Write the structure tokens for this entry.
Amino acid sequence: MPSTKEIKARMSGVRETKQITSAMYLVASTKLRHAREDLEKTRPYFDALRTEIRKVFRADDRTTSRYFLDEDGTLPDKGVCGILAVTGDKGLAGAYNMNVLRRVEALLKEHEGARLFVIGEYGRRYFHTHRIPYEEDFLYTAQQPSQDISREICTRLLALYESAALNELVVVYTDMRSSMSAEVQTQRLLPLDREQFSGGEMEKAGEARFEFFPSQEAVVGAVMRSYLSGFIYSAVVDSLCSEQNARVTAMEAANRNAEELLADLSLQLNRERQSAITQEITEISAGAQAQKRSKS
């Protein structure tokens, strides 16, 4: 049995840890609220871009573009698969990071020679520790997503795709469907399937004739850059929401465990104190009886 001093020292350590987890819970809650606001502001713009691309394909579904699969659905022969993984910069977020990393490792086994691009310091440290090759000069943080950074990432990846260094680009990120659930998503970003844009219900205005200058392919190419950068930004913000939500859940569970541990330690301390008091009373009583016998 541990002594009273040892139990008090452990209780002090648990209380200090609980203060840290409580502070992290408040910080994660604030970041989650801001990330949700950014995500809600991004989705209308992203949906509007999808609508405009659909209008182009509705005007002429034979439109060709290097950003879309051919009609037979085959990938370009030259180049390798590029994998863009969105992780966090820190841990203590439950299984958030590991779920993404496991999905990426499965994709690396499926695509031999794939080039790995990682957003987030946690993912870079993981792949460095496990000696998995990745683009070491691709240094982007996951904590402060912005449109400028997303456009920079988009420009770099598009340059590799257009130079035939990549024939496919896959994005792995975490989608927060609700405050209770989040799921890792694998989305092929390049080349896109034209069926995603040529189908679906459209507005009556879509029946009107459009004139494209200088050509439909040029218009699609100009819009696609904004679409791709918007998708990357949306994926990073969505992942940030999922990370902060996972951290809130993890810190809340840590606080509950700390309270339960403190309750158990408090009960153990009271028992130890009662045992010490009982032992002292027994010793005093035994001494008093011995004195009485010696006098008689």
About this structure: The first strand starts at residue 80 and ends at 86. Helices lie at 4-59, 96-110, 121-129, 147-162, 195-198, 216-295. The CA atoms of residues 154 and 228 lie 7 Å apart.
